[in-house]
Write a structure and sequence with these properties.
Chain B: The chain crosses the membrane at residues 20-40, 61-80, 178-196. The complex is a heterodimer of chains A (263) and B (216). With 263 residues, chain A is an alpha/beta fold. Chain A is built from 9 helices and 10 strands. The chains are: A alpha/beta (263), B mainly alpha (216). Bound molecules: adenosine-5'-diphosphate and magnesium ion.
Chain lengths: 263, 216
């Protein structure tokens, strides 16, 4: 990866932008998030990892209330959020979300994907929305694909359009849910490069990923989740070299083994 | 009894316009009602879902003929006497609303969850999300079965003859009563229905094939 973000300690963090206090979530009887406490500073970059089914997706989906939590408090930039909150859309539009499966709108071109929400949610005039969309498609290194439909793009290109679509809303927070897991290996780095550049720009980021190289490079803190709990939180240096919890050590052993096998 | 003349044939053929007009009105009424039913069926409010499901079950579980009878006689109970045209248009529209609603509910639900989630996470509210993201994808899926139902509806208008609305089938009955040439007359009527419906069915099949290919 060519780009490098300044290591954690080198960039200033702002006030608290996300606060989760004693958050519990259930799917029926199934206790999927257990007493989650997490506070994220403006400009902070967090990587969340953990075994499949540990609740990573659920946690970040609670932040923009794609999933409802049942107990505890989630405060986004000063507003306590819950699913019945009137004006939840006003919170959501400040939080970009990138999905494992891209979820681009198939009936719209890359450019139109990027223009839809700014025009319909923020009421930005078409010409301005288009100018912004083109600028941001350039920022994710695919200005030449603007008029293609998602189906005509490679996975890596689609994911970069998806990132651009979120960035066009000029969000305060970006959430990533395993953004490279569905990609062919040769396309992973083009997406990670864009994410590293985004981190350098000072964006507040929460990334669910098992790309440990990315975590080392940009994360201020790495969170390890297991069975719905936050088991360990540490700066990457300590997280990778001296994990405190037995479950973290076991997980890192498996993940690093798998990644050396793959590369 | 009299001989079957060219005037009779023309009378029958001209009655086609009432068949087509009734089909059109019922289809438009059904499209509006069906859109509401489909939205109600996919609503986040449980009560709305239950009521709309009941509506669909009622109309899918009873014969169209009974629905037309009821549309003709029930308004009379409330002192509103309806002519056969109004009753037929009303009955067929309610009927079409249930069937189109069910077809379109299915089409809406086939749009992947991720599309809803992406649109929601961008801050889109219900209506822009429906109109700009979900509907354009659902409509593609819905076109073949919708046209398939339109064909059923056109053929279904023949039942309006029973409540006295003079469309193609009723016109043929009238001429047959006077001339008693059932084979010629009803063969002609069948041919006319076929000429109207067959191209629609063929179009629907072609669209379906295209979608299948696109899905691969
Ligand atoms: N809609 C749902 N209904 C019931 N259980 C769910 C639902 N979504 C996720 N789960 C369960 O919740 C757990 C956590 O899921 P998830 O947050 O997706 O985990 P992760 O992202 O860490 O793999 C899993 O056991 C999953 O099966
Ligand atoms: Mg997940």
């Amino acid at each position: 990866m060519p780009a490098t973000a300044p290591p954690a300690a080198d960039h200033a963090l702002g006030d608290t932008i996300i606060e989760m206090r004693h958050v519990d979530k259930f799917y029926g009887d199934f206790h999927v998030l257990r007493d989650i406490d997490l506070s994220v500073a403006r400009g902070e970059r967090i990587v969340i990892c953990g075994p499949s089914g540990s609740g990573k997706s659920t946690l970040i989906r609670c932040l923009n209330q794609l999933e409802e939590h049942q107990k505890g408090e989630i405060v986004i930039d000063g507003t306590a959020v819950h699913a019945r909150l009137k004006g939840i859309e006003d919170i959501r539009r400040e939080i970009g979300m990138v999905f494992q499966s891209f979820n681009l709108f198939p009936h719209l071109t890359a450019l139109e994907n990027c223009m839809l929400a700014p025009m319909k949610v923020r009421g930005i005039p078409k010409a301005e929305a288009e100018a912004t969309a083109r600028k941001i498609l350039e920022r994710v290194h695919i200005p030449e694909q603007a008029h293609k439909y998602p189906i005509q793009l490679s996975g890596g290109q689609q994911q970069r359009v998806a990132i651009a679509r979120s960035l066009c809303m000029n969000p305060k927070i970006m959430l990533f849910d395993e953004p490279t897991s569905a990609l062919d290996p040769e396309m992973v780095s083009e997406v990670l490069d864009v994410m590293v550049e985004l981190a350098e720009s000072g964006m507040t980021m929460l990334c669910v990923t098992h790309e440990m190289g990315f975590a080392r490079k940009v994360a201020d803190r790495v969170i390890f989740m297991d069975a719905g709990e936050i088991v360990e939180v540490a700066p990457p240096e300590r997280f990778f070299t001296a994990p405190q919890n037995e479950r973290t050590r076991k997980f890192l052993g498996q993940i690093l083994h798998a990644q050396t096998q793959a590369h | 009894m009299r001989a079957l003349g060219s005037g009779d044939i023309i009378y029958i053929i001209m009655a086609v316009r009432w068949t087509l007009l009734l089909s059109l009105v019922a289809f438009l009424g059904g499209a509006i009602g069906g859109a509401l039913v489909a939205l109600a069926r996919t609503s986040e409010f449980k009560g709305v879902r239950i009521v709309s499901a009941g509506y669909i079950k009622l109309f899918q579980g009873t014969p169209l003929l009974m629905q037309l009878f009821l549309a003709f006689f029930v308004p009379g109970l409330f002192g509103w006497s309806v002519d056969p045209w109004t009753a037929a248009a009303l009955g067929l529209s309610l009927h079409a609303s249930a069937f189109l609603g069910e077809i379109w509910r299915g089409a809406i639900e086939v749009v992947p969850r991720g599309q809803w989630e992406a649109a929601t996470s961008l801050g889109l509210r219900y209506w822009p999300k429906m109109v700009l993201v979900i509907a354009p994808q659902a409509i593609r899926i819905a076109i073949p079965p919708t046209i398939g139902f339109l064909v059923q509806l056109i053929k279904g208008t023949s039942l309006a003859s029973i409540i006295g609305f003079v469309e193609l089938t009723r016109a043929a009955q009238i001429i047959n009563n006077a001339t008693f040439r059932p084979f010629t007359i009803f063969a002609l009527v069948a041919l006319i229905y076929y000429v109207i419906c067959r191209p629609l069915s063929a179009y629907s099949k072609r669209m379906e094939q295209k979608l299948l290919v696109a899905a691969r």
